[in-house]
Amino acid sequence: MAASDKHSHEHTHDPAGTRALQVRLRKIAGQVQAIERMLDVQRDCAEVLTQVVSARRALKSFAEALMQRHFEECIAGSVTPEESQSRLRDLLKVLERYVE
Q1: Cβ neighbours for 6, distance < 8 A, ≥ 6 positions apart
Q2: Fewest CB atoms less than 10 Å from the CB: which of 2, 7, 60, 65?
Q3: What's the chain's Rg over C-alpha atoms?
Q4: Does pTM top 0.85 for this prediction?
Q5: SS3 string of 24-64?
């Protein structure tokens, strides 16, 4: 069974929350594109690294918001305690990789 098929999404995500995450992600994509342009025009390495730090922080913030959503909507919204436990175990596996 594919990872995406493991849990059926019988719940729905808040559309406003989804839009907010999409906006964050578009901003991050814009930051990464700006870093690429900085490299193209030979900007100072320290300036480029400053922008990398900014993009990294934004991506971390995005991940934290997505985790919060997962807790509130996916785990708490599980139909059965078993489903909730399974989703929590899956999240813990991902978090182990996240903190490496």
Answers
A1: 86, 90
A2: 2
A3: 17
A4: no
A5: HHHHHHHHHHHHHHHHHCCCCHHHHHHHHHHHHHHHHHHHH
